[in-house]
Design a protein that fits this description.
mainly alpha; elongated
Length: 156
């Protein structure tokens, strides 16, 4: 019984904390959309004409994932989208590290210079791990935690 409560509280803290994180970062990026668009354009991630729609799409995805995690709506889809989003960020930073690029980005809503790649990659991998745990929770919650069924054998 205590184990189930602990697990429920653990996943609640992960879900709410990650939801607040995504909402905060998405809101900070939305206030400086022009910087994010310039970063996407400067890094040549997509063609020049696609920089603004990609910036808007990225912010929208962060806000949707954050809201869905915070309020536990469309939990499975939000966690899948969160895994894809954080996996993409891990891939971008790893390839930047391998290529030896010096990045300055508004990754967390504030313009800053990325100078410590091991730290940046490590904490994004940790965030990916949290999202994978939440994805597992969303997919296996009903299989692991079941409601006891009361059987009535009065007619036997």
């Amino acid at each position: 019984m205590y184990r189930d409560k602990f697990i429920n509280i653990f996943f609640w803290i992960l879900r709410v904390g990650t939801g607040v994180f995504f909402l905060t970062v998405g809101g900070m990026k939305a206030m400086h959309l022009d910087r994010l668009e310039a970063d996407i354009d400067r890094f040549d991630i997509v063609p020049h004409d696609w920089a603004w729609p990609m910036a808007c799409l990225g912010i929208a995805v962060e806000l949707i994932v954050g809201g869905c995690l915070l309020f536990k709506r469309m939990y499975m889809g939000a966690t899948a989208l969160g895994v894809a989003l954080t996996g993409g960020f891990v891939a971008i930073f790893v390839q930047g590290w391998i290529r030896g690029l010096s990045l300055s980005c508004s990754c967390l809503g504030v313009q800053r210079e990325v100078d410590n790649y091991p730290f940046e990659v490590t904490w994004r991998v940790l965030l990916l791990g949290v999202m994978l745990l939440l994805f597992w929770d969303a997919n296996h919650r009903e299989k692991v935690y079941f409601k006891p069924v009361r059987l009535d054998f009065s007619d036997i």
